[in-house]
Give the backbone structure.
Amino acid sequence: AQKITQTQPGMFVQEKEAVTLDCTYDTSDQSYGLFWYKQPSSGEMIFLIYQGSYDEQNATEGRYSLNFQKARKSANLVISASQLGDSAMYFCAMRALFSGGYNKLIFGAGTRLAVHP
Amino acid sequence: DAGVTQSPTHLIKTRGQQVTLRCSPISGHKSVSWYQQVLGQGPQFIFQYYEKEERGRGNFPDRFSARQFPNYSSELNVNALLLGDSALYLCASSLTTGTGLEQYFGPGTRLTVT
């Protein structure tokens, strides 16, 4: 069964420091995609970064980078130079493809990040 | 360009009632997915629609139904509401159902069942 595990219910970091949010996944598919979303208190899921299973290089998007270790089935999010506005829930997700031509996102339980001044 | 829009923002219903939630995808997007996010959990997949047809369904009872209109907007209906249906309902749109395309989420509808 496909599954995403986020073992850190909550994390805190000092402003301007880097923080790593952990994500491990389980799938038997050869082709899959991994995503990180940010969810502020307003509720909207904001796309941060994407890593394809065949991508050889780790994805980066500005201050966000994804530490992809395929053999360990981990896809950790690294936020550099944390800002107060980074305080939010962070979800790791995996795109699962199904026969019939549809796909869905499977989410982890999330990690609440608090950035302290 | 406008993002994904959902209405209403908040909704309070009584057990046993029926509710309809609405979603308008990003212009040009033909696929809409619905997710339920119970407080303290990650979102759970309910449906995916593409070109007005249901393409996938999650593990939800038949009380949950949806449809997609010719303009690609979508409605999610929940009948015979239960207290456990209280959640944030998220709509996401994408160009197609294909691979490598992230889904863009709307702000959600927060449903409270009393």
